Amino acid sequence: MVITNPILQLKDVSISYTPGKNAVESVSADIAEKQITAIMGPSGCGKSTLLRAINRMHELYPDIKTTGEILLNGKNILKTNPMEVRRMAGMVFQRPNPFPTMSIYDNVIAGYKLNGISLPKREKDELVEQSLKNVGLWDEVKDSLFKKGTFLSGGQQQRLCIARALSLKPQVLLMDEPTSALDPIATNRIEELLLDLKKEFTIMIVTHNMSQAARISDYSMFMYLGNLIEYDETQKMFTNPSDKRTEEYLTGQFG
Amino acid sequence: MSSLKYRTIKDKTFFYVTCFLASLTVVPLFAIIWELIKKGYKQINWNFFTESAPSTLDAMLARNTGDIIPGGIANGITGTLLMVVLAAIIAIPIGILVGIHLSEHPKTKFSYITRFLTDLIQGSPSIVIGIIAYAWIVKPIGSYSALAGSVALSIMMLPLIVRSTEETLKMLPGSLKEAGLALGASYTSVILKVLLPAAFGGLFTGILLAISRVMGETAPLMLTALGSTTINWDIVKPTSAVPLLIWEFYNDPNLIDMIWSSSLFLLILILSLNIIAKQIAKKWRIQ
Ligand SMILES: Nc1ncnc2c1ncn2[C@@H]1O[C@H](COP(=O)(O)OP(=O)(O)OP(=O)(O)O)[C@@H](O)[C@H]1O
Ligand SMILES: [Mg+2]
User: Fold this and answer.
1) Structure pTM?
2) What ipTM, to 2 d.p.?
3) Which of A182, A185, A184 is nearest to A158 (CA)?
4) What pLDDT sits at residue A181?
5) Is A38 within 8 Å of chain B by CB?
6) A91 contacts on B by Cβ (under 8 Å)
7) In B, which residues are within 8 Å of A177 by CB distance?
8) CATH code for A8-247?
C-alpha cells in the first residue's frame, strides 16, 4: 500500500523505557492526510508508546529513548522544539482531563492562555463557540460557559478536551483510546464527531475496540510486541488480512 | 469455653482502657480553656484590642482600687500581625518554589539533601533559630527589630511550607501536567497556571498551619524583636508580640493578671487558624 502525499511519516522509530529493551521496534509508516488511522493490537504492544512519541510526550521522562525519524510535513519533529511540535500535533488522552480550576470557556482556550497568547475578546468568543460547535457541545454548555469544566459528564468532558485540542488548530489529532472511559451513547457521539472532523484534521486513534476501528477508520495498523505487523486500508485489513497474527487478533483468538 | 469468655473480657477491657486514655488527652485542653476563660474574660473589652499594655504603675493603682487593669495588648497584636505577615512574605515564595523543585525532581541528590536540611530546620529548637536571626540581622543593623523577628519566624515556617507544597503537588494526577504540556505550553506556565492553582487548597492549608505554628513562638522573638511598649509599624525598630507580652506580664507582679486574657486571645486565634486550615483541607480533598 502506498500513501501519496503523507502528512506524517514514521521512519524506523524505536522507543525504549529501559535500555536495550524496545517497547516499539523500528516502526515505519506513512500517514494519510485528513484521514483516520486506527492503531490496534493487544494490551502492551506499544500503541500508546508510539502515539505519545508523535507529540513528544516521552520527553517528560528522562529514561525514555526515542530513535528514528518522525516527519511532519517533511520536517523531523524529533529535532524541532517540542512546544512547537505539540501545538501542531494535539493529543486527547484516555481519561478526560479538563483543567479543574478553569471554566469551560477557559478550558477551550487553555492552549492560548498557557502559551501566553492573548486574543481580543471577540476572537476568543468566536474560537470558543466554533470549537465547542465542532465537538457538538455548544448547545449543551452555552449557558454555563463560566462554570467549571469538571461539572460535566465524562462524555462531555472528553468532548471538551477534544475542543481544547482543536482550538489550537493542530494538523494532526492524536487520540489514545478516547472512548474507553465512556458509555455507548457518548462513544457514538464521539465517533460521529471524528468522521466530521476528518474533513479538516488528520486523526490517529488508538483503540481496543475493533468494531470502532472498522466503523470510523480509513487505514489501520496492527501492532504486536512493539512491531508494526500490518498496515493497510481498513477495509482490506478487516476482510483479507495478509498476516496470520492480524487475522487471529481480528477474529478474537488473542488480545 | 472459659478461655473464650476470658478473651472477650480482655478485648472489652482493652477497648475501655484506650477510650479512657483518649479522653484523658483532651482533659488538659479543656482545663486550660476553662481556666483562661474564667480568669481572663473580664479583661477582654474594646480597650483590650485598641490600647497598648499598661504601665506597672497604672496597673498597681487599678489593683489597689479593685478595678480591672486598664489598657490592652494592641502593641502585641499589631506586632504579631506585622511580623507574621512579613515572615509569610519571606517564607511563602521561597517555600513554594523549593516545594515545586522537590516534587518535580524527587530523586536527585540535591533534593535528598534539601529534604534532609528542611527536616533539620524543623527539628531545630526555636531559640537556636532566634540566635541565627540575631547574628544575621540584629548584629549588622545594630538594633532589635521586627525584621529580625520575621526572619526567625520565616525560617521556622519554611519547612512546613516546603513539605506541604511538595506533598500537595505529588498528589496531583500526572495527567494534569501532560494535558498542559500536550497543548504546547512551557514547563513554567504549566506549573504556574495549571499545577499551582490546582494545588491551591493544599498550599493554603500548609501556609495557615505554618502561620499558626509560629504565631505563638516566644523564644526566637526575645532575641530578635525584643518588645516595645507602644504600637510600632517600623520594621527596623524593636516590636512587641502577643507571646512576648505574656512573658512580660508574667514577670511583673502588677501585670500578672493580664496573662489570662492575653493567653485566651492567643489560644483562640491559633485554634481558629487550625480549624480553618483543617476545614479547607477537608473541602479541598473531596474535589
Ligand atoms: N512508564 C513505563 N515504564 C516502563 N515500561 C513501560 C512504561 N509504559 C509502558 N511500558 C511498557 O512498554 C510496552 C508498551 O506499552 P504501551 O503502554 O505502549 O502499550 P499499549 O499498546 O498502549 O497497551 P494498552 O492497550 O494496555 O494501553 C509494554 O510492554 C509496557 O510494559
Ligand atoms: Mg495504551
Assistant:
1) 0.86
2) 0.90
3) A182
4) 81
5) no
6) 178, 182
7) none
8) 3.40.50.300
